[in-house]
Structures are given as C-alpha cells and as structure tokens.
Amino acid sequence: MMMNLVNSVLNFVVPPASLLMLAFSWPALSFINTCEWLYNSFFGEDMEDKVVIITGASSGIGEQIAYEYAKKKAHLVLVARRENRLWGISENARALGAKSVLITAADVVKEADCRRFITETVNLYGRDYSICKFHQSLIFKAEMETDVTEYYLYLDIRVLFHFSRIKWKYFLDHLVNTASLGHTFYLEEATDTNVFPILMDINFWGNVYPTYVALPYLRQSRGRIIVNASVESWLPLPRMSLYSAAKAALVNFYETLRFEVDGDVGVTIATHGWIGTEMTGGRFMLEEGAEMQWKEEREVSLSFPSRNGVTCPSLLTSTICSVNSV
C-alpha cells in the first residue's frame, strides 16, 4: 500500500519537475556551449603544419583520429604493425587535407622500434627556431645599416660563427597513443596464459615506450601527449579483466607524468565509452610482425551501448585542440 502511494506521488511530481528543470537549464547550457565555441574559435590550437605521430593508426580510433588531424592540415606520421593498411589510410588523409603523411611499420612494445620512428619523424620534420630568429635580427640590422659592404662582411662572419656553435633542435607537436588490444573472455576460460603479458605489453608498455622516447622533443615544442585510456579504467566490465587492469595502470602512469613534466608538456587522457571498432566485434586479436593473426575468435553477444567509431575521434580531436593543458 505504501509503495503504491510513493509510486503515485513520484508519477505525479517527477515529469513536470523534469520539464521545469530542463526549461531552466537549457538556456544556460546553450550559453555555455556558445561561449566554448567562441573561445575555441579564437584561442584553440592551430594544427596547420604541426607534426603529429599516431600509433595504432591502422584501424579504429587511431585511423579516425588521423582523418581528423588531416582535416586540420597537420603533418601526419602513422605507425602500426599492419603497414598494408596504412597505405590506404595515408591516401585518405592526404585527400582530407594532410600536408604530408609518413607511414612506418613498427611494434610499439619494442623500444628500438619506437626510437626508429620518432627519429625518422624529427629528422624529416625538424625545425630550428633559433636560426629563424637569428635571420630576423640580421634582416632588421640590414635595414638600419648605411654601409652595405660593411653589413655583408659582418653578416658573413656572424653566420659562420653562429653555425659553428649552433645546437640543432627538432620538434614534435603531438604524440597520440591509440595502440590497444582487447579481449572478450572470462579469466577462468583462458586456455593460453601466454596472451596475458601480450595484453599488458600492448595496452601499457605500448604507450610508455613511445612517450619515453618522444618526451625530450615534446618538451622542446611544449607539445602534447594524447592517451587512449578507455572508461574500463574505472568502470570494470565483464570479459575484460586484463584490459581494464592495463588501462587503469595507464591512467595512473599519465596522471603521475603530468606532475613530472610540470606544464612543459600537455597530457590529455581520453576515457571514452564503448566504441564500435574491430575490437568490439567480440574477437581477440594478436598481431605478429606486420601480419594480423586471429589467435582466438569468439563471437559474443555484446549488450553494451557503443558510440560510433567516427564521432568519438572527432570530439576527442576538437577537445585536444581547444585546451591549453588537460
């Protein structure tokens, strides 16, 4: 009897109260969204000619993020073990507006591979702002000089002296870590424990090694690290115990790193929800070299609501370019 009375009261009160709250909150939310749009339009990061490395770019979130950066006219470096997939993605990125695209097959759980593709990047896209500033100062001096012969003699001596002592600086603007490997089995159902360290390697060390190698260059450019952490880092789901553990470790690692870099490098941790990608098809994937091998294929009934694999990267990239440090 009491429960019926409570239900009746709630049915009578809740609907109009919800509509009233919506009526009052909608103008405020619209105003906040407008202010955010205006701020991003004037103060958002301009990615044109910026250099962006994206790991795990052969599919899923990594592929779509590459397209979003391409629309912003950035220079892209696409990294994955499936090089054959990267060729098609690079063509799509160029068509969308990428200034240039470098593709490289690499294993992000190997430090040597990480050093190789990051060294290739900084050698190809290296910039030295000190030289630019030096030339600007000389041009200004040329305008002030009355004796042209004296100026050119001075210019030659200064240029030779400057190049003899210059320290070259190479710049990398964004490192986007999206390499990830999931599973859809209960822990007690696992028949081969050899896959356990593979899952931890790709989901944790596959982010740490590229970050470790790229960090000195990101400090020089005051760049940014973007991490694909996933909501499973704090909201565990069944059949994903090892994946959730690795993502939780990843979040704690980058939260600590944020303190260590002390604002010199931005750190953006994306804890998105369930995304419709290859991994959500219910398959456990194991990559060997540049080939994709199906270690285990288990079609499962996934009842989790998933966000489109295109919408989420678009929102993530917009957020990355609209913040100074996260």
From TrEMBL:
It is a single-pass type II membrane protein. Coiled coil: none annotated. InterPro entries: NAD(P)-bd_dom_sf (IPR036291), Sc_DH/Rdtase_CS (IPR020904), SDR_fam (IPR002347). It is found in: Membrane. It holds the Pfam family adh_short. PROSITE patterns: ADH_SHORT. Keywords: NADP, Oxidoreductase, Signal-anchor, Transmembrane. GO terms for cellular component: cytosol; membrane. GO terms for molecular function: oxidoreductase activity. It comes from the Eukaryota. Signal peptide: none annotated. SUPFAM superfamilies: NAD(P)-binding Rossmann-fold domains. Belongs to the short-chain dehydrogenases/reductases (SDR) family. This is 11-beta-hydroxysteroid dehydrogenase-like 5. It comes from Anisodus tanguticus. The lineage of its organism: Eukaryota, Viridiplantae, Streptophyta, Embryophyta, Tracheophyta.
